[in-house]
Structure formats: C-alpha cells, structure tokens
Design brief:
mainly beta; 16-stranded antiparallel beta sheet; 5 helices; 14% helix; 54% strand; elongated
C-alpha cells in the first residue's frame, strides 16, 4: 500500500505530459491469490503536442479501482479545440480476457485541425464537428471492439474530400458545392468495420442520403456504400407537393449511386449509377426539407451527438 504523485512526460512522436496522484494497494503479489487493485488516482493537466500543435490539452481523469474492476470517470479536456468528455470501466476477471466499456463525446472539434492531425494536406476543410460514441470490448484486441454512435457537422467547408467530390461529379454538381456543407451520420462498428445506420448531407446545391447498411473499413479505407443524391434545383418545383405525392416525380430526378474503392484519393473512388429502389417516405421528406431550408440541416433532423452518452 502506498501513495505517489508527480509529473510524467513521454516522447513517442508526440510530447505527452501531466500530473498524477495515486493512493492504493495491490493484493495478490507473489502469487498469494488473484491480483487485485484497490485505491484512487487522478490525472490532471495532461497535454499532447505533435510538433508545434496541441492535439489534446488540460485533460483530467479520475480513477477508482476496487479489486478486479477499474472505473475511469470524469474524463474531460480539450481535443483539437473541441470539448471532450467520457467515462470508462475496465473489468479484469480472473482467467478471462480484460473487458472494457465506455462512452465519449467531443463537441465543437475543429475539422481543419483534424485534417492536419491525419496528414490530409490535400483537402480544404473547415467547420466544427460533434461526435459521440459508446462501446464494449470483451478482449484487448481491436477486433473485439463493438460500438455505435453518431456525428454532426454544421456549416462546414469540405473542398477536395475525395468521396464527396466524386459524388458531386456524378450528379453534375461542381466541386464548389461542398463549400457550405451540413452532415450527420449514425453508425455501428465491429472492429474496424463501420456500418452506416443512417445519415444525410446537404448543401445549397445538392442533397445526399446514404442508405443504411453501407460499410467502411477504417484500417484500409475501403468503401461499399449506396447513396441517393439529387440537385435541389431539380426537385424544387415539387416543393408544394405532399410527401407521398412527391415520391414518383422525385424518383425521376434523383440518382442512386454505388460507391466503392477507397477514400484515399478521388482516383481511388469508383461511382456506379444504379436504379432507385426501396425509396422510403423518410428519404423523400429529407430532400423536401433540404429544399425548404436551402440545404441546411436543422435540429429537427437529428438529436445532438452529445445525447449519445448513455449515463
């Protein structure tokens, strides 16, 4: 049993530093029963810098360990200019793999800073992102990670983003249409395989609705996604139609696209036009709403990403 406090700093491509305080004990050392951890800890003022840029700032974490479980709560700090919050639990069952669950939200993250952190100097993006995610993992391997969440972007600039540029070209819209873009997506994941469960994108020129079931592999960037897209000018003439009466004329103006390839570059994205199928009332209602708002998504379309936090 004992206490410790101090300051740590590590250089692993990033400068990482902060203060810590620990007070607890280890039971079971030397084989005298299962290893257990009891006590409390606190990390405060933790910062992560890559080069001259701050990635994370002023992170605080509270830790409470009781036997073979560890609660990590009160997580908050600044991440790429956004406000991050979270809580996690780690279970260490005897003779079984470590199990983890938790949630995290980030409000107002800078898209420009995110692109720079990912090394995407080929895109011109700006705007703010809200994202929420909750997960479980029944083993320490990345393939065991299962979760779901959503993201929301408002009034963003997404020029040069390969997938969006390819879709705009397929519906005869100029790439400048992405200069004022609203996006929201809902998703689940198993390992690095992300499955879209809902989503929509709107600009003053075009609206795009991803169909549920599309997949993205985070490790490789592989895409297999279907979307319905339409120029707002082509459907504005039907604005006064009731939604059910709009379905038939809408199918004559909209286009269904199958997106494959990878997100790495415009050349690596493949777009194939397909017949429209399974067009639901909700999809038509979204496009009608996009025309009415001039290509903006309103709060009526989605709940804020921060509401994903389960506790």
């Amino acid at each position: 049993q004992g206490t410790a406090s101090g300051r740590a700093a590590v250089l692993v491509g990033y400068d990482i530093g902060g203060d810590f305080e620990l007070d607890g004990r280890l039971d079971g050392l030397g084989g005298a029963g299962p290893l257990e951890v009891h006590g409390t800890g606190r990390l405060s003022g933790w910062n992560v810098h890559g080069g001259d840029a701050a990635v994370a700032e002023s992170f605080t974490v509270n830790v409470r360990a009781f036997g073979r479980s560890i609660d990590i709560g009160g997580v908050h700090g600044r991440l790429l200019e956004g406000q991050a919050f979270g809580a996690f639990r780690v279970d260490l069952p005897a003779g079984e793999p470590t199990r983890t669950q938790g949630w995290m939200t980030v409000d107002d993250l800078s898209l420009e800073r995110l692109a720079a952190a990912l090394g995407r100097t080929d895109v011109d993006v700006a705007g703010r992102l809200d994202v929420g995610y909750r997960f479980t993992a029944d083993a320490p391997a990345a393939s065991a990670l299962r979760g779901g969440g959503g993201l929301s972007v408002r009034d963003s600039r997404m020029l040069g983003v390969p997938v969006l540029t390819a879709v705009l070209g397929a519906v005869r819209a100029r790439s400048e249409a992405a200069s004022d873009t609203d996006v929201e997506l809902a998703f689940t994941n198993v390992g690095d395989r992300v499955t879209l469960t809902g989503g929509r994108l709107a600009t003053p020129i075009v609206a795009i609705s991803p169909l549920p079931g599309g997949t993205v592999r985070l490790a490789t960037g592989e895409l297999d996604v279907h979307v319905v897209a339409a120029l707002l000018a082509d459907i504005s003439q039907y604005l006064d139609f009731p939604v059910l009466d709009l379905i038939v004329p809408f199918t004559q103006q909209a286009t269904q696209l199958h997106i494959t390839g990878t997100w790495e570059s415009r050349e690596s994205v493949t777009i194939a036009k397909e017949p429209l199928r399974d067009l639901g009332e909700a999809t038509v209602r979204f496009f009608k709403g996009a025309v009415e708002t001039g290509g903006e998504l309103t709060e009526s379309f989605t709940e804020p990403a921060r509401a994903i936090a389960p506790w």
